[in-house]
Design brief:
mainly alpha; 4 strands; 6% strand; elongated
Length: 214
């Protein structure tokens, strides 16, 4: 069976013949080549999807395969998931809620220790007080320079980007840290965590097949 590149070249060749000498024969040859190429593309796509759906491998290889199967620049989302009623869910927001509910249900922290409203006046006084808030750019550089570029990071800001730009951003980050300590305010944006659902293996539609990575 001819490969896709060969069929593509064949289609283009008959198209050029048709443009130079338009006739019933040349147009028919081009249409046949076009149809053959389209059918081969559909079959190749189906075979590729079947290989991905039936692959049995470790999660690391699965994400490697997925990364190289999706074109650069295209958005990538979680596959179709089943809700608690075993119904397939396609909406992105609903899928996110399904995974969020699942991750909350498997949380090992006792329910009485999270999501509680603590009154500030009921907290015990600290035995140690900070009098000097001396966070320097050098301190930030030492920390960022030790980041592992192979480790996962928040979306949009990689560890490599932080390491390469450390001399430029260190003073700004140090200023934010000093202001946070002086004003006794922890920025709201720092409290927002990014949770990535990592595929462990098994049924891709089951929330049990994913674990949260912070």
């Amino acid at each position: 069976m001819n490969s896709l590149p060969d069929l593509y070249k064949k289609k283009n060749k008959f198209y050029r013949y048709y443009k130079k000498n338009a006739s019933v024969q040349t147009i028919q040859r081009y249409k046949n080549a076009q149809k053959q190429f389209d059918q081969a593309c559909l079959k190749a796509k189906k075979d590729h999807i079947d290989r991905i759906n039936h692959v049995s491998c470790a999660s690391k290889y699965w994400w490697y395969l997925l990364k190289h199967s999706v074109r650069k620049g295209n958005s990538c989302s979680k596959p179709v998931l089943k809700n608690f009623n075993q119904q397939l869910v396609y909406d992105h927001r609903e899928k996110a809620n399904i995974l969020n509910d699942h991750f909350v249900s498997i949380c090992t922290m006792p329910a009485n220790q999270y999501n509680i409203d603590i009154q500030l006046d009921t907290l015990p006084s600290a035995s140690t007080k900070l009098h000097v808030f001396n966070v320097t750019g050098s301190d930030i550089e030492k920390i960022l320079s030790k980041l592992d570029v192979n480790k996962a990071a928040a979306p949009g800001v990689t560890n490599r980007l932080l390491r390469e730009s450390v001399t430029i951003i260190s003073e700004d980050i140090a200023h934010i840290c000093r202001m946070s300590l002086h004003e006794s305010i922890f920025p709201e944006s720092f409290k927002t965590g990014y949770v990535n659902a990592l595929f462990k293996g098994g049924d891709h539609t089951s929330p049990d097949s994913y674990r949260p990575i912070h």
